[in-house]
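Course assignment 3, question 2. Fill in each field.
Student: A.L.
Task: Predict the tertiary structure for the chain below.
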Amino acid sequence: SGNNFEIIIIDDGSPDGTQEIAEQLEKIYGADKILLRPRARKLGLGTAYIHGMKHATGNFIVIMDADLSHHPKFIPEFIRKQKEGNFDIVSGTRYTGNGGVYGWDLKRKLISRGANFITQVLLRPGASDLTGSFRLYRKEVLQKLMEKCVSKGYVFQMEMIVRARQLGYTIGEVPISFVDRVYGESKLGGNEIVSFLKGLLTLFATT
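Answer field:
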């Protein structure tokens, strides 16, 4: 690609062999390109971001899921978009242009669309996809946002965008295809939906 990069893999003791595969990749590509930074147990997405940032040496950070539901082919488009508008954040969107979701049942699609719609109505965030996590951040912007964000779970990604708008950061969007994981199961259940609604109301009251 011509871009200088490193891949930081944060594995929270997952039982699916992520760490073993990462170790093999590290041997193939070298420890300067593949940085495996495991943690003993699951400590949450926000703390994984902070843990990863400590080891990042670049000026920009791309956050993505490691199960290939986020395809790396979109990364050059994120970089191109960032350079084009000098954006602080470039967010992958499933809901504009030729973006889309593959492998979800109707219930999951309705939950995602519904969450997005309610959030758009209440918070007017100026971005089309608030619950996705495939994003490029300017490193210092990600650090500032992590200091401000208090949410956990499903609401966390949404708060990142809402706080970014609140702080005056610029956001570009790139349409992406999201493909549901082939192995493992989604963790979205009744408790997550209740906590999403609570988090949404908290954001509505404080932004």
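Instructor remarks: The chain has two domains: 1-58, 60-206. Helices lie at 18-29, 45-55, 75-85, 106-123, 139-148, 156-166, 190-206.
Grade: pending
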